[in-house]
Amino acid sequence: MRAALVTRPIDVSALITEVTDPSCGAVSVFLGTVRNVNDGKPVTGIEYKAYEAMAVREMEGALASVRERFGTSHIVMEHRLGLLGLGEVSVAIVAAHPHRHAAMDATRTAIEEIKKTVPIWKLEHYADGTREWVDPTRGAQAVEQSAPVAEVVG
Amino acid sequence: MPGRIEVKALLFASYADAFGSGEMPLLLEAGSTVGDAVAAVRAKSPAAIPPCPLVALNERYAGYGDVLAQGDEVALIPPVAGG
Q1: Smallest CA–CA separation between B2 and chain A, in Å?
Q2: Which three-class secondary structure state does DSSP give residue A104?
Q3: Where does the pLDDT of residue B20 fall: very low under 50, low under 70, confident under 90, or very high at 90 and above?
Q4: pLDDT digits (tens, 9 = 90+) for B32-67
Q5: Which of B83, B31, B62, B80 is nearest to A92 (CA)?
Q6: Closest to B37 (Cα-Cα) out of B18, B63, B17
Q7: Domains (range + CATH), chain B
Q8: Which of B17, B77, B83 is facing A119, going by the closest CB pair?
Q9: How far is the C-alpha of B40 from the C-alpha of B19, rounded, in Å?
Q10: Residue of A nearest to B11 (CA)
Q11: ipTM of this predicted complex?
Q12: Residue of A nearest to B73 (CA)
């Protein structure tokens, strides 16, 4: 089990290798990526900032809770900080488990928890040159916050 | 100074932009709470921060009634948006 903030591109293959284990028949991967639009406004990039010491503590807490709930310690999470371009991976969560349902539930539970508690903020850069801090508690963003997340299963 | 404590307020994202700084030293009465620290920060620029932001004390989410000690770090946490 490992959680980290990074300032370099996230190497998803390395994370998969890190959690893969002969006892596990499933590896689930969740990736969050930079989207080109938010709230109807064209986005050119997102700058991520964190209260770093607390963010790592909260990420570790979320993983510990996932480990307890789903019975796997083969889980790793990296969240990237700094300015990211469209399509770049901002967060990766990879979990391995003997069985697929628990592996998928582990990554989903982890990302939902991260979005609620970890002190990380996004400064969106828009095509018109303006910038704005994302506030998920406000307007259309609040609706989106409650929508299901997409998941890629490895 | 007797009867007083120094604590550090940390501001992030929109709050830091509104203040023009991510850190603010505070001199408070001994026995002051997290809520007192938030009030002291807001007193400098009430429009920049909502009345009851999320707070952390020494890197853990905290309540407004938690009592501060010399050297504590109080963070005002804007709505988080990781992922």
Answers
A1: 31
A2: helix
A3: confident
A4: 999 999 999 999 888 889 989 999 999 999 999 999
A5: B83
A6: B63
A7: 4-77 (3.10.20.30)
A8: B77
A9: 13
A10: A51
A11: 0.93
A12: A54
Q: Which residues, given as ranges, of chain A have pLDDT below 70? A: 139-154
* B75 → chain A, closest CA residue: A51
Report which DSSP code applies to A99.
S
- From chain B, the residues in CB contact with A121 under 8 A are 12-14, 78, 80-82
Strand order from edge to edge, sheet including B23-29: B23-29, B4-11, B73-77, B54-57, B60-61
Please report the domains of chain A, with CATH numbers, ordered by start residue.
2-135 (3.90.1170.40)
- Residue whose C-alpha is closest to residue A78's, from A151, A1, A154: A1
The one-letter amino acid at A53:
A
Residues 6+ apart with CB under 8 A from B46: none
Determine whether the interchain pair A120/B56 forms a contact, defined as Cβ–Cβ distance below 8 Å.
no
To the nearest whole Å, the CA of B64 is away from the closest chain A CA by: 18
B2 band by pLDDT with thresholds 50, 70 and 90:
low
Contact B81 A55 (CB under 8 A): no
Establish, for the pair of chains A and B, how many residue pairs have beta carbons separated by less than 8 Å. Answer: 71
A57, closest residue in chain B (CA to CA): B59
Helix (H) or strand (E) holding A102: helix A100-117
